[in-house]
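Practice problem 4.
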């Protein structure tokens, strides 16, 4: 169910600027919508036909800034800018060059290091990430110190593997980070070809989240350098588990419980399979899950234009010749 919260434009703009004053991205979105509202006000004087045409423009993801390119699908005059100049990655939603697959792909490849670095900074400057990382470390130490690892290991030593070879293969392959990058890549190329902005943005967030999660997991493995039950080095934390939970978190926040819950169930199965196959100890899996959820959440939030947890959308009231912004949240 969607609930809408509406205020007069002036009050909303003041609140938005106050909340996002330290964020260039927040200011950028406010600027974008202010420009769009002016277009609505002009169109409202032209009657229903004018409002209908303007609504179509606002429904697209408008770029912002005085030095940015106007996509060919949007009429001149709605957004200030100079044709032929590129919209920076941090100020746009959707491909850099609409309807041009290869130019957009090339631009995204060039911008990828910058976007990953931006998400890395967002991840490790967020207090909740540091809390989650501390929790992952504490859980790993506590589960080992209380001999929970030994208890779980004794269970599987006594009873043997509980999963069939097919089940082990599903967990091993389905939890492999390489497969997750493949899923993100498939989403990205499909959205680039079809012009699906939501899938495009979700795929880019997913690619970055998996990259940040993978690098973080590898760094922790190298620092701790403990042995897995099967004798392999670098056991803690579980990379399969962290990557699968990262994937589930991003998809849950993008598409809701209908997609997220089944993926979380599968991520839990991957964690169980890692223990059942004796590739990891119990604490490897628990810590990996915490890390994956934390990084997936923070990266996804870094890709969303929000104020106090609400999505920012245009709002107009043609009957009263009024325009403003609305804060929307799904419950």
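Answer key:
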């Amino acid at each position: 169910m969607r609930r809408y919260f509406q205020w007069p434009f002036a009050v909303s703009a003041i609140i938005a600027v106050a909340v996002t004053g330290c964020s260039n991205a927040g200011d950028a979105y406010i600027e974008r919508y202010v420009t769009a509202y002016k277009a609505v006000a002009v169109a409202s004087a032209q009657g229903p036909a004018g409002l209908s045409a303007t609504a179509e423009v606002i429904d697209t993801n408008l770029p912002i800034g005085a030095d940015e390119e106007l996509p060919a699908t949007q009429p001149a005059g709605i957004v200030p800018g100079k044709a032929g100049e590129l919209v920076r990655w941090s100020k746009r939603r959707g491909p850099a060059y609409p309807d041009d697959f290869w130019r957009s792909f090339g631009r995204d490849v060039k911008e990828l290091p910058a976007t990953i670095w931006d998400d890395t900074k967002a991840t490790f400057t967020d207090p909740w990430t540091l809390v989650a990382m501390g929790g992952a470390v504490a859980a790993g130490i506590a589960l080992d110190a209380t001999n929970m690892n030994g208890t779980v290991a004794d269970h599987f030593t006594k009873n043997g593997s509980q999963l069939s070879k097919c089940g082990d293969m599903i967990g091993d392959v389905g939890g492999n980070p390489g497969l997750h990058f493949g899923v993100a890549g498939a989403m990205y190329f499909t959205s680039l070809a079809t012009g699906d902005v939501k899938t495009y943005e979700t795929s880019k967030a997913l690619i970055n989240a998996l990259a940040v999660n993978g690098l973080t997991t590898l760094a922790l493995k190298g620092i701790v350098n403990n042995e897995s039950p099967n004798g392999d080095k670098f056991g803690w934390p579980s990379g399969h588990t962290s990557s699968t939970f990262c994937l589930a978190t991003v998809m849950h926040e993008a598409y809701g419980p209908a997609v997220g819950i089944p993926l979380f169930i599968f991520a839990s199965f991957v964690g169980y399979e890692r223990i059942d196959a004796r590739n990891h100890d119990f604490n490897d899996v628990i810590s990996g899950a915490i890390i994956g959820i934390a990084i997936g959440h923070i990266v996804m939030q870094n890709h969303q234009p929000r104020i106090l947890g609400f999505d920012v959308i245009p709002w107009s009231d043609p009957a009263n010749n009024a325009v403003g912004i609305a804060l929307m949240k799904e419950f």
